[in-house]
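I had to read the description of the data format several times before I understood it. In essence, backbone conformation is discretised, so a fold becomes a row of integers matching the chain in length. I therefore recommend that a typical entry be quoted early in the introduction. For illustration, here is how one protein appears when written out as sequence plus structure tokens.

***
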Amino acid sequence: MKRSLRAALPSIDTLIVFEQAAQALSFTKAGAQLGLTQSAVSRQMIDLEALLQVALFARERQRLKLTEAGAEFRELIRPVLQDLRAATLRMQMHAVPNNVLNVSVAASFCNLWLIPNLPGFCAQANAPQVNLMPHVGPVVFGANAIDAAVVNAERPPEHCEYLKLCDLEIGPFAAPSLLRRLGVGRLEDFGRIPAVDIREGNGAWPRYLAHVGLSRIGIDCVASHSLLLLSHEMAVAGLGVALLPPEFVASGRAPGALKRLHPALLALGRSYYFCWPAASKKRETIQALGLWLQRELQVARARGSRVRKG
């Protein structure tokens, strides 16, 4: 029975070699990626085709192409290999000590606020090692080897513990170079605003202008993004005026500093939450990070910039 089962199924190594060859469409390149010779890759693929009794590759004029069966087989085994890699990583994570936290972080929050400020947390006595994994969209703890997450959402995530870090509130920011070019210094000075818009903001620019009593100002949308990170980079490049949380923005003479054009903020009806599985064995360490995030974000909002001056 053991010999029969072994003969009926390809090895994991063979499937990995096939996946690499299907991606590279070259036995030579696949071998270089895997530390194998071209002939070793070719032999494994010939044996795999013999086992499956179908041609996986078409060899035409020294060019390699996937056959229809090869493309189908690649799609069939892809989730198998992904699940195997995820299961291996998950088991390996059992050996990770409690002083290491793997945190999945909303991409804009990660790049614009957490990374510039994280050294302040890591400098504390007995601080854990924090590994960051930026994400876009929801986080599912059961399917990932993560200990905690920072999410941007309308309400607290379900089936986990959480701390509310801050509400998502935005105001207008622009690069000094753009303001000099247009000859303006305040939001009130604009006749029409070259606006960088937020797609999920439900008409954020008209709402903001109405909020501050400046609906008379026209809007020319120069770009529309789903990520605050991209809106920030557009503003830094001097391409338009962006609505951003003040704690995401460098001020003063810092590299990439933006000028705030109005003191009022508009609430988007969303918040940043720090959440973690209720049964986490690292609960105490996770909470320490969450409380630090909560405190530092309040300080950043109060000073109106993302990092401490000096």
Remarks:
- The chain has two domains: 2-93, 100-310.
